[in-house]
Amino acid sequence: MSASGPGSRDGAGAPPRPPVRRPGERLVVVGNGMAATRFVEGLVAGGYAGRVTVLGDEPVPAYNRILLSAVLEGTHAPDALTLRSPGWYAEHGIDLRTGTRVLAVDREHGDVMLVDGTLVPFDRLVLATGSRACRGARARGRCRCAGWRPRSWRAASTCCTGRCRRRPGRSSPAA
After folding, report:
1. Is 106 helix (H, G, I), strand (E, B) or coil?
2. What average pLDDT does the chain have?
3. Are 37 and 44 in contact (CB under 8 A)?
4. Under 8 Å between Cβ of 15 and 46
5. Residue 15 maps to a domain
6. Contact 111, 118 (CB under 8 A)
7. Which of 3, 89, 152, 174 has a C-alpha 20 to 30 A away from that of 33?
8. Binning pLDDT at 50, 70 and 90, where does residue 72 land?
9. Cα distance between residue 61 and residue 63, in whole Å
10. How many domains does the chain have?
11. What is the 3-state secondary structure (H, E, C) of 120-151?
12. What is the CATH number of the domain that holds 73?
């Protein structure tokens, strides 16, 4: 009789294992957020021998979204958000492609098509695309809120480009 759960030998409850290291294997990560960065850091720490390509929709490397509010209030500089610099990816032989939107994944042919028509081949694929924030209930296209539209500061580009101005007399960002 075998026990299951953390610490057991049957794998139940054990943390996920990194992919088997195969030199020349092409691993593509779709998404460039906190989870994708952590995954890639794990590959580097584990000595993964394959070629890694990271495809991110935003024009900047992965950043700490949790600190966006601190940047808004001015307690942190925007550069404090960056999790790993483009140089870190280059040092580890990782092909980081920011500002790259994926149009389709063809599992049968083993490639990802970008919106510009570029095909990125893969042997293994990781989807780490994140999620969208829930921004409140809507009725006839309008939010039911106390006089202002809620905003989700999901992207550093929105937060750090001056779009988050406050209206006089309001306690929320301008709508």
Report:
1. strand
2. 76
3. no
4. no
5. no
6. no
7. 174
8. confident
9. 6
10. 1
11. EECCEEEECCCCCCCCCCEECCEECCCCCCCC
12. 3.50.50.60
